[in-house]
């Protein structure tokens, strides 16, 4: 049950040495053994999100790595879903594209019912949790951590929703969430500085503070970010931009200064 | 190298204590993974029927799936039998549901509690594959080893070998039982890293179900 055994972004995508027959049933004799366990190949790093006064704000960088190579630099890892939600993903990018196809089918049939009802973020979160959990049961997971945020009118007025689900189906709802390295670097900042009913400007400032820390400390992040917001008016995914970084710290200039011995 | 492990332990502890005409069920609300806290406000308690509540700790994905499966089966039972499931009936159903996945288990450590058909408190304690027992009290989860000895000391059941059979439920009053549960959680929170944040206490008695939350240490 070691949490670290699932860390992605460490080491290149090595081809597995042989198919892994854990758990699930093997194909009948003559059909060959079915490959079930996976390794992620093209991966996105952290996504962070938080609730603010008008809705939910979500942000991530636009990079996708192939092991330790920064292969793609303009990848959109946050997408709108229906009228009321946005979804962000870290992990295997092709699995995210697959999930977007499932969501397309879902929103299409929702549209075709044409009954005045539309899927909200809570429903989409629940649906994706079932999808992720069922794939995990077949030992064929979608290698992602998903963040779903949105606003929808409910019995108590406009209800903001923010939830997360990981590749084995662990899911929860919170005021602020982060995936991957964001869990370790961004969540402490969000826990200290988040409060109810932040304005959009305050929320963007807080998100940028987290993104900057991730940029400095997460090897797989790049200096090109996208912020997205969802309110009752709808979703907006802003064009990518960069943050100003500072590398002039005296310790960076002469890192060996003050080091004792051969370290 | 990334390697797929279908399980993770999201931590937390669950406790239940049965009384003469009440039942106290409690669980912390911390959801963890590895050394991180995912949420400080995640409930582990599910109400399956009128007088029947399930508290589970372990892998949260499996726990939610198990709760959904049981809720669905309970609804089918209601449609077929025109009554809600009793706690002892749900106890057997839970055991069967767990054993059904004997070779790819639900990683859930459960405590099922409520009032039996006579209105007396009942607590059923389970392992991950469905072996269960009716007891007077139980703790399951990451802090259970810290709590059970204290509960044994305070609520020690008479030996099941005695004749005539003695009651396993505690003679304590409802408020005393709730205080004991609060104390025992405060102790486990000190030493178990996965237990803490907030304690959710559900009390079931003849007038219904009532919920209370108290703060625990957040470190």
Runs of chain B with pLDDT <50, length 5+? none
* Number of discrete domains of chain B: 1
- What is the overall number of helices of chain B? 4
Which CATH class of chain B is shown? Alpha Beta
Oligomer: heterodimer
What fraction of residues of chain A sit in β-strands? 25-35%
What is the assigned CATH homologous superfamily of chain A? Aminohydrolase, N-terminal nucleophile (Ntn) domain
Biggest sheet of chain B: strands, sense, closure?
Answer: 5 strands, antiparallel
Helix fraction bin of chain B? 25-40%
Main sheet makeup of chain A: 8 strands, antiparallel
Show the largest interface. A-B, 34 and 26 residues
Task: Write down the CATH class of chain A.
Answer: Alpha Beta
Gross morphology of chain A is globular
Query: Topology as H/E string of chain B?
Result: EEEEEEHHEEEEHHEE
Region (Disordered) (chain A): 1-34
Keywords (chain A): Cytoplasm, Nucleus, Proteasome
Subcellular location (chain A): Cytoplasm; Nucleus
Main location (chain A): cytoplasm
Would you kindly provide a brief summary of this structure?
Chain A has 263 residues and is α+β, with helices and mostly antiparallel strands. Chain A has 5 helices and 13 strands.
What does this structure look like?
Chain A has 5 helices and 13 strands. Chain A is an alpha+beta fold and 263 residues long. Chain A has a single domain (42-241), classed as Aminohydrolase, N-terminal nucleophile (Ntn) domain (Glutamine Phosphoribosylpyrophosphate, subunit 1, domain 1), CATH 3.60.20.10. In chain A, the strands form 2 sheets. In chain A, strands 1, 4, 5, 6, 7, 8, 9 and 10 form an 8-stranded antiparallel β-sheet that branches. A 5-stranded antiparallel β-sheet of chain A has the order 11-2-3-12-13, with helices on one face. In chain A, helix 3 (181-193) runs antiparallel to helix 4 (200-217). Chain A starts with 41 loop residues before the first strand and ends in a 10-residue tail after the last helix. With 219 residues, chain B is α+β, with helices and mostly antiparallel strands. Chain B is globular and about 50 Å long. Chain B starts with 12 loop residues before the first strand and ends with a strand. Chain B contains 4 helices and 12 strands. In chain B, the strands form 3 sheets. Chain B has a 5-stranded antiparallel β-sheet, with helices on one face. In chain B, strands 5-6-7-8-9 form a 5-stranded antiparallel β-sheet, covered by helices on one side. A two-stranded antiparallel sheet of chain B has the order 3-4. In chain B, strand 8 (121-126) and strand 9 (132-135) form a beta hairpin. Chain B has a single domain, classed as Aminohydrolase, N-terminal nucleophile (Ntn) domain (Glutamine Phosphoribosylpyrophosphate, subunit 1, domain 1, 4-Layer Sandwich). Classes of the chains: A alpha+beta (263), B alpha+beta (219). The interface between A and B is medium-sized, with 34 and 26 residues. Chain B: Pfam families: Proteasome. Chain B: This is Proteasome subunit beta.
